[in-house]
Specification:
The complex is a heterotrimer. By secondary structure, chain A is mainly alpha-helical. Chain A contains 13 helices and no strands. Chain B is an all-alpha fold. The longest helix of chain B is centred in the middle third of the chain and has 42 residues. Chain C has a 6-stranded mixed sheet, with helices on both faces. A 6-stranded antiparallel sheet of chain C has the order 13-12-11-14-20-21. Chain C has a 5-stranded antiparallel sheet with strand order 15-19-16-17-18, with no helix packed on it. The chains are: A mainly alpha, B mainly alpha, C alpha+beta. Chains in contact: A-B, A-C, B-C. At the A-B interface, α1, α2, α4, α5 and α6 of A face α1, α2, α3, α4 and α5 of B.
Chain lengths: ~325, ~300, ~400
C-alpha cells in the first residue's frame, strides 16, 4: 500500500496534528449534533419551559414588571365562561375535522390504490388535485374559501345555490354556518396528509395476504374487513392522533377566513391565545392557555408513541 | 361506507368466492360497478379540490363590470388584469422576494443542520441517544403556535425581532426535528458496511458522508427540501409574530393577509393576491410531486 | 513465532453493556498464509476481523502486522484491505471509481497512475469491460470481483474477507471459492477469511481456527480439526453430517462404557477414558465409522454393535445417510455406500469398531483419544459432503 508521507518539517507535523484533532472531534457525535442541539434548546426547549413559568405570572407586554400569581391565571381560565366556550368550539372543530380528514383520506387512498392496481385512468390527477390543496398557504386557503363563500352571488357556493333559487346563505356571518365553513376549509387542506399516510400504509400490505384470503374464499368485503383494515390499523391510529394534534392547533386558516368571528363562534384555542397575548398584551394569560394546549399535545404525543411503538425503533 | 369497502385493493378477478350473500353483493357491485363508483369518486374529489382554485383564478381575472354576471361562466367573457396590477402596486414583488429569500436560506439551513444530526443518530452509538431522539420526536409533535408567546420574548431578547435572520433561525429550530427524523430513516437503510469500506479506503467521517453516503440519501434530502419549502413558503404565524410591522420584510402570507385587510371587499383583488401567492409553489410542486410522494411514503415507512 | 506476519495477542473485545465478543484470542499467521475463522453466528469471528481492520478498537490485547503493533492505528494506516459479505460497493460510483477510490483518498498518485493500477487489477480479475458500469447493473459475481479489485488494488499486507461467498448462489459460490483461493496464492498475501460454513472453511483454509462464544476452540489444518477435534464442540461443528456423540459413564472396573449404550473398551481406549475428570465419558464416532448390517446377517463378534431401527434413509448419490434410532434411545447417523440394503422402519445393527472411536471428557468436553489416523483412513471416505444449501 502506498502511504501518505508522514515525517517532515514541523509545519507539516502541526498540520497533521490539527488533522488528527479534527478527526478525533469527528469521531464524537457532539460536533454533528451541536447545531441541532443549540437551535432546539433556544427555539423549542427554552420556550416550552418559559411558557410554563410565564403562565404563573401576570406578565404583560404593556407593563415592565410582572409578579408571580401562582395558579391565578388557570383559576381565571377555569371560571371563565368564554374559555369554556372556546374549548367547546375547539373540540367541535377538532373532532369534526378528524372524522372528515380520516374518512375522506381513507376513501381516497383506497380509491387511488384501487385505480393504480386496476389501471384506471385519473388516479394520478386525483392524487395531484388533493395534494394541490395541501400546498396552498394556510392564509390563502382562508382567502380562497372566503371568496368561495362570499355571501352574495359572487361567492361560488351562493352562486350555485342562487341558480337553484336558494340563498344567499350567510356562510360566515351565521355562527353555526361559520364553524361549518371553517371545518370544510380545514378538510379541504388537511385531507391530503391522511390520504398520503393511508396510501403509504396500503402499499405496505403484502400482496400475498390478499392472495391467501382469496384462496380462503373471502369476497371483496371480507378481504377489506379482515385484511386491509387490520393491516392498516397502526397507520390509522397514528394518522388519527397526528391529525388531531394538527386540528387542535389550527391557526392561520381560521385567522384569515373568519378571524374567530362572528362574535367568538369560530375562536379556537390557538386564536384565543394569540389574541390574549398579542392584542390584549396579556402574556401571562396567553401562556396559561398555551400550557393547556401543550398538555393536550403531550398527552396525544404519549398516545402516539404508545400506539406507534416507536420506543423499540429509537 | 360500502363504497370504499368495495374499492378495497386486490379486488379484481372473478366473483365466485364467498358466501351466497357475498356473491350477491359482489355481483351487484362487480368490478364494473366498483370501477364506476371509483371514477365517480375521482370526479368528485377533483371537483372539490380543484374547483375553489379555478374559481379564485376566474374571479381574479374578471373585469370590474362582470362581477355579478349571469349565467355563471368559469371562463369569463373578458379578461382583465387590473386586479393584478393593484396587487403588484401594493408590494407583491417585495413579498415574493422576501418569501423566496427566506425559503431558500431557510431550507438550505435546515438541510445543513439536519443532515449531520441524522447521520449522528444513525451512525453513532452513545448514551442518551434514544432519549435524545425521543425528545426530537416530541418537538416534532408540538405545534409552534403553542410556544409563540415565549418565542416572542426569546426573539426579542436575542434582538432578532423584525429581522430576516431571526425568522430563518426560528424556522430551523421549528422544522429540524421532522427533517432529522425523516433523514435518519434514509440513513438507516444504507448498510453500515459502506461506512466501513469508506474508512478502510481512508475516509474520515466527514469524507464518508460527503463521498459515500450523500448520494444514497439524496432522495431523502430532496423530500426534506420540498417539504420544508412548502412549509416555509406558507408559514404565517411565526413570520407575522417575528416580523411585526417591518413591512419591507413581509413574506407572501403576511402581505396577502394585510392586503385583504386593506381591501376588505374587493374580491377580485383578494383573489388575484391569492393566485400570485400560490402560483410559485404550485409550479414547483407539480414538477416534483412524484418524487415527493414516493420519498415521503418510503420515509414514513422507514421512520417507523 | 518470529516469522509471524499477522499476529493477535490476547485480543479482548467487550461491548458497552457487558457483552464480551472476543475473549483472550491469540493467533498468528505466517506470510502468505490463509487462515479461516469459522464458528456459529455470534462466535466473535466478525468482531475479530473488524479489530484487525481497525474498524473497532479491542478492549485489550494487541494486533501486530509485520512485527509492528497497529492497535490504535486508523484502518487506512494498517495496510489492510477488506471484502464484505454484501460487497459494500459505493452504489453511485462506477466499478472503476469504486476500485480507485481508496487510492485517491490515501495517496497522491496521479490520475494516470490510478487509472493504470485500476486497469491492471481489472485485467487480473477479468472485469475490464465492466469498469464503467455501476454496481446496480452488475451481477452478484461481478460485484464480488469489483469488491475484490477494490481490496487488491491497494496492494495490502493483509487481506480480510468477511463471509465473501454468502450472498452468492450455490454454483457461483463454488467457482468464486476456487477463484479466491487462486488469487490469494498468486498474490501471496496473508489472508484472514471469516465464514460460518464449515465446509467452506475445510476446503479453503491452510489452517482453520474454530471459535465459539469468543474463545478459540482449536486451530490447525482442516484435516487435524476433522480427525482430531480438540473438544466436543469442534467434533460436532466440523464435519457434515455431525459426529455422533453418546454420553456414557465409565464403569467402576474401567473396562467399558455404560449408559444408554454399553461399549467395551480395549486397552488403548480404557487408558484414555481413565484420564477423564469424572466418570462421564462421551463416545463419539463419525457417520463414516460404523458399518450397518441387518439382524439376519452374521455379526462379527469382535466389533461392538448397537441394535436399532432405521428412521430415514437419505440417498445423496454414491452414498446414503441412514438415521437410526438405537433401541437404547439416542439417534445416530451412519453414512453407507449407495446401494445400502437397509430400509426405513426396519431393524438394523450398527457396528462401531474401536479404531473409529473418539472419547471426550463429558465434564470438560475435552478430547481424550482419537482414532489412529492411519488405521482410520481405510474406514472412512470423504471427510465432508459438498454443500447443497443456499
Amino acid at each position: 500500500m502506498t502511504r501518505v508521507a508522514t515525517a517532515g518539517p514541523t509545519a507539516e507535523r502541526l498540520v497533521e496534528r490539527a488533522g488528527s484533532v479534527a478527526r478525533r472531534l469527528l469521531d464524537h457525535p457532539l460536533p454533528w449534533l451541536a447545531p441541532t442541539l443549540v437551535v432546539l434548546a433556544v427555539f423549542q426547549l427554552y420556550p416550552m419551559v418559559e411558557a410554563v413559568l410565564m403562565s404563573f405570572t401576570n406578565e404583560s407586554l404593556v407593563r415592565t414588571e410582572s409578579e408571580f400569581v401562582g395558579l391565578g391565571q388557570y383559576a381565571r381560565l377555569a371560571t371563565d365562561p368564554q374559555f369554556r366556550e372556546m374549548l367547546r368550539v375547539t373540540g367541535i372543530y377538532a373532532f369534526s375535522s378528524v372524522v372528515l380528514h380520516v374518512l375522506l383520506g381513507l376513501v381516497l387512498a383506497l380509491a387511488i390504490d384501487y385505480g393504480v392496481r386496476r389501471g384506471l385512468r385519473g388516479h394520478l390527477t386525483t392524487r395531484v388535485s388533493v395534494l394541490l390543496a395541501w400546498i396552498v398557504p394556510g392564509i390563502i386557503i382562508g382567502l380562497v374559501w372566503k371568496v368561495m363563500l362570499v355571501e352574495n352571488r359572487f361567492g361560488a357556493v351562493n352562486h350555485f345555490l342562487g341558480t337553484l333559487g336558494i340563498g344567499p346563505v350567510p356562510f360566515r356571518s351565521d355562527p353555526t354556518l361559520a364553524l361549518v365553513s371553517t371545518i370544510v376549509a380545514g378538510t379541504w387542506r388537511g385531507t391530503a396528509f391522511s390520504m398520503i399516510m393511508f396510501y403509504g400504509g396500503l402499499q405496505r400490505i403484502p400482496q400475498r395476504l390478499y392472495e391467501a384470503a382469496r384462496v380462503d374464499g373471502a369476497g371483496r368485503w371480507n378481504r377489506f374487513r379482515h385484511v386491509t383494515l387490520p393491516q392498516l390499523k397502526p397507520v390509522l391510529f397514528v394518522t388519527t392522533v397526528l391529525v388531531t394534534i394538527y386540528a387542535l392547533n389550527t391557526f392561520d386558516l381560521i385567522f384569515a377566513l373568519t378571524g374567530g368571528g362572528p362574535g367568538r363562534a369560530t375562536q379556537v384555542l390557538a386564536l384565543f391565545m394569540y389574541q390574549e397575548a398579542f392584542q390584549d398584551y396579556a402574556l401571562g394569560r396567553g401562556a396559561a392557555i398555551a400550557v393547556v394546549m401543550l398538555v393536550t399535545n403531550l398527552l396525544l404525543t404519549g398516545v402516539y408513541l404508545y400506539l406507534f411503538d416507536v420506543g423499540d425503533e429509537l | 361506507m360500502s363504497d370504499d369497502a368495495e374499492s378495497a385493493p386486490g379486488g379484481t378477478g372473478a366473483v365466485t368466492e364467498g358466501t351466497p350473500v357475498e356473491r350477491f353483493r359482489d355481483r351487484l357491485l362487480g368490478p364494473g360497478a366498483v370501477d364506476l363508483s371509483v371514477y365517480t369518486l375521482y370526479a368528485l374529489a377533483v371537483a372539490f379540490f380543484v374547483f375553489p382554485v379555478l374559481w379564485v383564478v376566474s374571479v381574479s381575472v374578471r373585469p370590474p363590470g362582470e362581477l355579478f354576471s349571469y349565467p355563471f361562466r368559469l371562463v369569463p367573457a373578458e379578461v382583465s388584469l387590473s386586479a393584478y396590477r393593484r396587487v403588484f402596486r401594493a408590494g407583491m414583488v417585495t413579498w415574493l422576494f422576501n418569501s423566496t429569500a427566506v425559503t431558500a436560506l431557510g431550507v438550505g439551513s435546515i438541510v445543513a443542520v439536519s443532515v449531520p444530526a441524522a447521520y449522528a443518530f444513525s451512525r453513532f452509538e452513545f448514551t442518551g441517544r434514544r432519549e435524545l431522539l425521543g425528545l426530537v420526536l416530541l418537538f416534532q409533535m408540538i405545534s409552534p403556535v403553542i410556544i409563540i408567546v415565549p418565542l416572542y420574548t426569546v426573539m426579542s431578547g436575542l434582538g432578532l425581532l423584525r429581522t430576516r435572520t431571526g425568522l430563518i433561525l426560528l424556522y430551523v429550530g421549528i422544522q429540524t426535528p421532522f427533517s432529522i427524523w425523516l433523514l435518519k430513516g434514509y440513513f438507516d437503510t444504507i448498510p453500515k458496511e459502506l461506512d466501513y469500506a469508506a474508512r478502510i479506503d481512508g475516509c474520515n467521517r466527514l469524507q464518508t458522508l460527503r463521498h459515500v453516503l450523500l448520494r444514497p440519501v439524496a432522495p431523502g434530502i430532496a423530500v426534506v427540501a420540498i417539504f420544508n419549502t412548502v412549509l416555509t413558503w406558507s408559514e404565517f404565524v411565526l413570520a407575522f409574530t417575528v416580523l411585526r410591522t417591518e413591512s419591507r420584510l413581509h413574506t407572501i402570507s403576511i402581505g396577502v393577509y394585510k392586503f385583504q385587510g386593506q381591501y376588505g371587499n374587493d374580491w377580485r383583488a383578494i383573489a388575484a393576491a391569492s393566485v400570485v401567492g400560490m402560483v410559485p409553489l404550485v409550479v414547483v410542486f407539480l414538477g416534483l410531486q412524484r418524487y415527493f410522494v414516493k420519498g415521503l411514503i418510503e420515509g414514513s415507512l422507514k421512520g417507523q | 513465532m518470529t516469522d509471524a506476519h499477522l499476529e493477535l495477542r490476547g485480543l479482548h473485545k467487550e461491548y458497552p453493556g457487558g457483552l464480551t465478543a472476543v475473549e483472550g484470542l491469540s493467533l498468528s499467521l505466517s506470510r502468505g498464509e490463509l487462515l479461516v475463522l469459522v464458528g456459529p453466528s455470534g462466535c466473535g469471528k466478525s468482531t475479530t476481523l473488524r479489530c484487525i481492520a481497525g474498524l473497532e478498537d479491542p478492549t485489550d490485547g494487541d494486533v501486530r502486522i509485520d512485527g509492528e503493533s497497529v492497535t490504535g492505528r486508523r484502518p487506512e494506516d494498517r495496510a489492510i484491505a477488506m471484502v464484505f459479505q454484501n460487497y459494500a460497493l459505493y452504489p453511485h460510483k462506477t466499478a472503476r471509481e469504486n476500485i480507485g477510490f481508496g487510492l485517491r483518498m490515501t495517496t497522491d498518485l496521479s490520475d494516470a497512475t490510478v487509472r493504470e493500477r485500476v486497469e491492471d487489477v481489472a485485467g487480473t480479475l477479468g472485469i475490464t469491460d465492466l469498469l464503467d458500469k455501476k454496481p446496480g447493473s452488475l451481477s452478484g459475481g461481478q460485484q464480488q470481483r469489483v469488491a475484490l479489485g477494490r481490496a487488491i488494488v491497494r496492494d495490502p499486507e493483509v487481506f480480510l474477507l468477511d463471509e465473501p461467498l454468502s450472498n452468492l448462489d450455490a454454483t457461483l459460490r463454488g467457482r468464486m471459492r476456487t477463484e479466491i483461493q487462486q488469487l490469494q496464492r498468486d498474490l501471496d498475501v496473508t489472508t484472514v477469511y471469516v465464514t460460518h460454513d464449515q465446509t467452506e472453511a475445510m476446503t479453503i483454509g491452510d489452517r482453520i481456527a474454530v471459535l465459539r462464544d469468543g474463545r478459540l476452540q482449536q486451530m490447525g489444518s482442516p484435516m487435524t480439526c476433522y480427525h482430531e477435534p480438540a473438544n466436543r464442540f469442534v467434533a460436532s461443528f466440523i464435519g457434515e453430517p455431525s459426529m455422533n456423540l453418546l454420553d456414557c459413564e465409565l464403569d467402576p472396573a474401567g473396562s467399558a462404557l455404560t449408559g444408554p449404550v454399553s461399549y467395551p473398551l480395549d486397552d488403548r481406549l480404557a487408558a484414555a477414558a481413565r484420564e477423564a475428570e469424572g466418570v462421564g465419558v462421551t463416545l463419539g464416532f463419525r457417520p463414516e465409522a460404523p458399518t450397518l448390517s441387518v439382524p439376519t446377517d452374521e455379526a462379527d463378534p469382535d466389533t461392538p454393535t448397537f441394535a436399532g431401527r432405521v428412521d430415514v434413509v437419505e440417498p445423496i448419490g454414491e452414498r446414503s445417510f441412514v438415521y437410526v434410532t438405537l433401541d437404547a434411545g439416542p439417534q445416530v447417523t451412519v453414512a453407507t455406500p449407495g446401494g445400502t440394503p437397509v430400509r426405513e422402519t426396519e431393524p438394523v445393527r450398527v457396528a462401531v469398531a474401536p479404531a473409529g472411536v473418539h472419547l471426550f471428557d463429558a465434564a470438560t468436553g475435552q478430547a481424550l483419544v482419537h482414532p489412529d489416523r492411519d488405521e482410520r483412513s481405510d474406514l472412512a471416505g470423504v471427510p465432508a459432503r459438498e454443500p447443497d444449501h443456499g
